[in-house]
Amino acid sequence: YRSTRTALFDGIEEGGIRASAYSSHEIDEHENERAMDGLQDRVSILKRISGDINEEVEAHNRMLDRMGNDMDSSRGFLSGTVDKFKTVFETKSSRRMGTLVASFVALFMLVYYLTR
After folding, report:
1. Which UniProt keywords apply (predicted)?
2. Is the pTM of this model over 0.85?
3. Over the stretch 73-99, which tens digit does the pLDDT of each residue have?
4. Can you tell me the distance from the alpha carbon of 97 to that of 103, in angstroms, rounded to the nearest whole number?
């Protein structure tokens, strides 16, 4: 019994136990430092990704603003064209109507042959 106990606790005194606890504390500190380094790397990666996302969102917002402006201008152009058609259709002139229909047919045929 005595030899087993001696082999188990050989060289451990009060100071030895404290030194062992201190070594465990040092190991924990090193692990914490490694974990903190890993977290710093992850945070920097997330920061870069969020910056890239921000740039992408701003670019898409600018593109959407330009598209909105283009749509507004085309809406204005189309409303002017529709108003002109209304005035043409409101007049009962058969000559104008014939010219208009012939123009549309000619335009349609031209576009048809150009796209073929």
Report:
1. Coiled coil, Endoplasmic reticulum, Golgi apparatus, Membrane, Protein transport, Transmembrane, Transmembrane helix, Transport
2. no
3. 888 778 887 887 777 667 666 677 778
4. 10
